[in-house]
Amino acid sequence: MASPWTADEKGFMQRALDVAERGRGKVSPNPLVGCVLVKDGEVIAEGWHDHLGGLHAEQMAIHDAESNGHSPNGAVAYVTLEPCNHFGRTPPCTEALMWAGVKEVVVAHYDPNPTVRGKGIQVLEDAGIEVRQGLLEDEASTQMHPFLHWCQHRRPLVTVKMAVDANGSVDDRSQNPQRFTSEVCLDLVHGLRKECDAILVGVETVVRDNPLLTVRRVPTERQPLRIVIDPNQRTPKDALLLTDEHETLVMGEDFTSLSALLNLLGDKEIQRLMVEGGPTTVGSFLDQGFVDEFYLIQSKVIHEQPVASNIDERRLTSAGLSHTSTESWGEETVQLWTRP
Questions:
Q1: Burial of 205 by CB count in 10 Å (0-12 exposed, 13-18 middle, 19+ buried)?
Q2: Closest to 202 (Cα-Cα) out of 285, 321, 317, 312
Q3: DSSP 58
Q4: What would the pLDDT profile of 287-315 be if each residue is shown by its tens digit?
Q5: DSSP labels, 188-244
Q6: How many CA atoms lie within 13 A of 324 on its CB side?
Q7: How would you label 80-94 residue by residue, b for 16+ Cβ within 10 Å and e otherwise?
Q8: d(CA 307, CA 175)
Q9: For a FRET experiment, which of 203, 262, 302, 314 has its CA 20 to 30 Å from that of 86?
Q10: Quick count: other Cβ atoms within 10 Å of Cβ 155?
């Protein structure tokens, strides 16, 4: 069956997806969104959601067109997400598109947020603007995965990162706590942290490693919420994550369950949670079926007094995960396992 979309149309929407990436790590709990305006087969403007409280993608694209002497009147807008029709941190994007006089809007993915859910498309159509949807929908879904997951489940997407030695050990008890992965790998891990709204560890990790759990090796405009599971109140008073200016949530004796914690984080609009804890913490998330992504980082180092991760193919598969890809992060090999 022939595609209903032309190569040019696919190219315009791909450009919208590309510019949306410029907001990565800066716009949560809003999704990544990009927009390009096309007139007479040529892109005349582009926009993206850059930061909370800033212009939405459609509004930025309209401003970009006018700033460069182009009229958006009669243009086609290619947008990666259904335009909003409600007042939030900014006015509705549907009003901006109607005011600008666009003649058609092509949407990659509808907005499942209860405040939108088709209402944006309906308003545009009622105003006489042609709307088509579904162009590069899968690509848009992948880009906005944490947002779409949160809209559906009202819980964060759970991403686990675990580094192990050549034999699957997470720590070497013969030495003081120290990193055993390469500089390149560490940079990429901090890039992954930047994309998350919160980072979680168990108290054993705090006692053993005294980590900061901040984004430091890549540019960032925000720091994730740090969460420590500590039902027996063992977190040292002078722990680094309690003595700096960034927010830490210690789940002490009031900690009830991972399910309740994920619901709490969902209510706080935490859309992506990164779990960096040890075998016990990670095992709890796996065994209860809460892991959506698992980055297993394997080093060539061999620990003298190893601490077993207890993570292997069988355990990941039984947790509902499938092996998606294998790649190199510096000197390390990284397997990505995801929930279908």
A1: buried
A2: 285
A3: H
A4: 999 999 999 999 999 999 999 999 999 99
A5: HHHHHHHT-SEEEEEHHHHHHH-------SS--S---EEEEE-TT----TT-HHHHS
A6: 13
A7: bbbbbbeeeebebbb
A8: 12
A9: 262
A10: 21
Helix and strand totals (H; E) in the chain? 12, 15
* Dist. CA 74–CA 237, nearest whole Å: 62
Alpha-carbon gap, residue 272 to 294, rounded angstroms? 13
Q: Is 331 a catalytic residue?
A: no
pTM greater than 0.85: yes
Taking alpha carbons only, the member of 260, 288, 287, 290 closest to residue 275 is 290
Residue from 46, 58, 82, 332 carrying the catalytic annotation: 58
pLDDT tens by residue, 7-32 = 999 999 999 999 999 999 899 999 99
How far is C-alpha 39 from the chain's CA centre?
Answer: 32
Look at the block and give the residue holding tokens 């603007």. Answer: 129
DSSP class of residue 21 equals G
Instruction: For residue 328, give both structure tokens.
Output: 């190199």
Surface-to-core class of residue 56, CB atoms within 10 Å of its CB (0-12 exposed, 13-18 middle, 19+ buried): buried
Write out the two tokens for 238.
């002078």
